[in-house]
Design brief:
This protein has 235 residues and is α+β, with helices and mostly antiparallel strands. It has one domain: Gcn5-related N-acetyltransferase (GNAT) (Aminopeptidase, 3-Layer(aba) Sandwich), CATH 3.40.630. The protein contains five helices and ten strands. It is globular, with a radius of gyration of 16 Å. The protein starts with 26 loop residues before the first helix and ends with a strand.
């Protein structure tokens, strides 16, 4: 699991924690809970849908690049493994945004679409980070793992993925989504606030030594102060 992160001008809003969920259920149940979202951006049309097997490498690479060079950096093989585990995971729905560009030059060789965003929404605390502070309710949806291709930021892709997460929550009869954002990441805070998320509580700014488990490996490492936010989803 990766604590809620949106790759805007800064790399991400919180640290990656790639912890696989231990509950594996049928993907059809997850897919039935959210409709595909579409959005038109300057570069073309974006479609948000559920992670498929042929998306795993691209989604893992995007997530790795989004955090590269930051204290939250993750290894490609770990990100790819996480994606593979959640193709058929009902408790952790992973969504990807794909661009159908107006300019074919933006397409990867041999591809009809370009993967430009990824986000996860968990419905169980089983596979989440072992929160040492600001823990969201265990039985309510938690948004995480959000990243956007640097070449297509600030074009509405993140918002389209947030809308898709709303649909997934609505499909489970859930009316609240939670997430974390770094206190230092003003761009991500602005995105979430503009979409309707509100601050619930934050880590004390004078206490940077908040600890968490990274990459499910059992090690502890200091992380930067965060804010816990929530959004009421219309039913």
């Amino acid at each position: 699991m990766i604590v809620a992160a949106v790759a805007l001008p800064s790399a991400a809003c919180s640290r990656p924690v790639l912890k696989p969920c231990r509950t594996r259920l049928k993907v059809v149940a997850c897919a039935a809970r959210a409709a595909v979202k579409e959005a038109v951006i300057p570069a073309g049309k974006v479609t948000v849908g559920f992670l498929q097997a042929n998306d795993v490498q691209g989604a893992g690479l995007l997530l790795t690049r989004a955090f590269a060079g930051t204290p939250e950096a993750v290894k490609l093989d770990e990100a790819v493994k996480f994606m593979q585990l959640h193709i058929n995971d009902e408790q952790e729905c992973t969504l990807v945004a794909k661009l159908l560009p107006t300019d074919p030059a933006l397409l990867p060789p041999g591809k009809s679409a370009r993967l430009v965003g990824v986000v996860s929404l968990s419905f169980s605390a089983t596979g989440r980070e072992d929160f040492r502070s600001l823990a969201p309710p265990a039985d309510q949806p938690y948004l995480s793992n959000m990243a956007v291709d640097p070449k297509f930021r600030r074009q509405g892709i993140a918002r389209a993925m947030l809308e898709a997460c709303d649909s997934a929550a609505q499909g489970r009869a859930q009316d609240t989504i939670w997430l974390h954002v770094r206190q230092a990441d003003e761009a991500a805070q602005q995105l979430y606030t503009s979409y309707g998320y509100s601050e619930v509580v934050r880590d004390p700014a004078s206490a940077p030594g908040v600890f968490g488990l990274l990459l499910g490996g059992g090690g502890a490492q200091a992380v930067r102060p965060r804010i816990l936010m929530k959004r009421q989803v219309a039913q």
